[in-house]
Amino acid sequence: MTTLNEPRPYGRAGLTVGPVGYGVAALGNLYRALPDDTWRECIPAAWAAGIRSFDTAPHYGLGLSEERLGVGLREYPRDAFVLSTKVGRLLEPNPDYRPGQSDIENLFDVPSSRRRRFDFSRDGVLRSVEDSLIRLGLDRIDVLFVHDPDEHEQDALDGAFPALEELRSQGVIRSYGAGMNQSAMLTRFVERTDLDIVMCAGRYTLLDQGAEGDLLPAAEARGVSVAVAAVFNSGILATERPRMEATFEYGEASAALRERVERIADIADGYGATVPQLAVQFPLRHPAVATIVLGADSAAQIRRNASLADEAVPDELWDELGEAGLLGGAGGGES
Known about the structure:
TIM Barrel; eight-stranded parallel barrel; about 35% helix
């Protein structure tokens, strides 16, 4: 049986992480505004549950996620956790802002007094890092990811990655990489740069194993750590049984997908396991995968997420799922 809770190397600079990290987009009021007493409980709950890695981005809530994460982490020893944020979107004053206007069209319930501007240049990266440190109120960032450069691949290769290499060589950051919801471009970055960590969302899950054909073998060959995000595929794998209104990739899940998840749940039941457990633990079985990054908007949800890796499910369960043809997934690596 696979051991899940031992620390795993994260990049090549001596960082280590546990099986589950906390992705704090919700602290930026993702979908809805969080009351003060709710968001202030989240980081302490994660810490109490053993989580020691935290991921944020300027994009999340127009900087609010970074600000709240920094507040939550200040009472803990800086060397005891791994902090990652992202570059590629600069925040600047929104000249068109009027009181009462919200950023909800970008999924965040915050005033739209700032706006995002894509910038993958060297100067953009350096400014982004400086701004993030101010918002976080912390002395350093461990990992920087180039964030969603889907339409800016060459700009990232020419500007952002050399800047991150410079920051790493100067000791300003420990590691760098890219975070995307596709595997094809991430694979090219693994092959063409000296990054040492990537974050791949939604492309290595129970229902979509597209990254297995390109990113994961490339990462393993180059000694690159992979953090896997969006393991619930936006909702269908987040519950023990799929609901009629379940979503897949932020759209309505098909009847065929719901039936497939029901079959997975039936087999899991026989071993005392659940679909969310499998969703979290499946990616961790691959040697290139260092950690799973899970979002949560309450202390209770954080505790539940952390518990999904507490007890490894039996190898026999994975064998039975494979024999039933339930571990193959459609590719999502094209770009």
